[in-house]
Amino acid sequence: MHTCTYAHAHMHTTHTLTFYHVGVVAQLIGWRAIFWVASAGGVVVFIAVFFLLPESLNPNGRKRSLNPLRPLLLLLHPAIFVAAGHSGLVFGSMYLIVFNFPLILANDFHFTELQSGLAFLPFGVCALIGTMLGGRSADWGYGKVGSPGRLIGSILGSFLMCGFFIMFGFSANTSPVGLMAATGGIGFCMTFARPGISTFAIDRQPTEPGSVAATVLSLAFGASFVMLTVSPPIIDAVGIEATFVALAVLMALWTIPVMAVMFYYWRFPSEVT
Fold first, then answer.
1. DSSP conformation class of 149
2. Which of 60, 63, 44 is nearest to 52 (CA)?
3. What distance in Å separates the CA atoms of residue 182 and residue 52, rounded to the nearest whole number?
4. What would the pLDDT profile of 123-170 be if each residue is shown by its tens digit?
5. CA-to-CA distance for 37 and 103, rounded, in angstroms?
6. C-alpha closest to that of 58 among 201, 210, 172, 170
7. Residue 76 gets which letter from DSSP?
8. pTM of the entire predicted model
């Protein structure tokens, strides 16, 4: 559980620092330098992972397999499908926010690249806090009622996130302070909700944690691609306010099956898979 929490903290903090450094590098050196810096960082991380990351295959689980469809087949498990779908919606929403946020700051409020990079700091700070508290919440819920308790904090964070989506949409053309506050709130709720969802999914197939994680991430990145592809024409057609209200409604609707899954496994605790 703690490993998952720290991984989420690292991922979301890195996302935020990336946007901050992009603003600084682009302002001081030029946009081409962004790709040189990113490439150098990627080489360092690749070497570190290759030599330092230990084997994660569970010796008591399935044998190592090269079947690339195995993670996708896990989507046939109802609980994993619901958890992965929720994670995909959260992940896709995050990319939708970080894509539109600097554009709004530059076009509507005339922020420089450096100012736009600094404006991501509330998102990063709140995302880090949300991850740590989300991990604690998932542990607390597990201690109270077992694996279904991990979802308690995720459900609360999801419904709270809906309010910040609406706040983001209506602040987009009116208030940069409100926009940054909404972005910070979204960052907190996203990372507060994810540890419980991810570890609950892994609990459903504890002998295949790697495959479950791959399933969740596959749907997350797939949802990100879809949302980034379809959102620009939707925003142009109906406006950013209506778009983020619709996103809030979609998040609320997807949280309902998450609640159903939680109550099912709460009612039938002997259901391990």
1. G
2. 44
3. 38
4. 888 988 998 899 899 999 999 999 999 999 999 999 999 999 999 999
5. 22
6. 210
7. G
8. 0.79
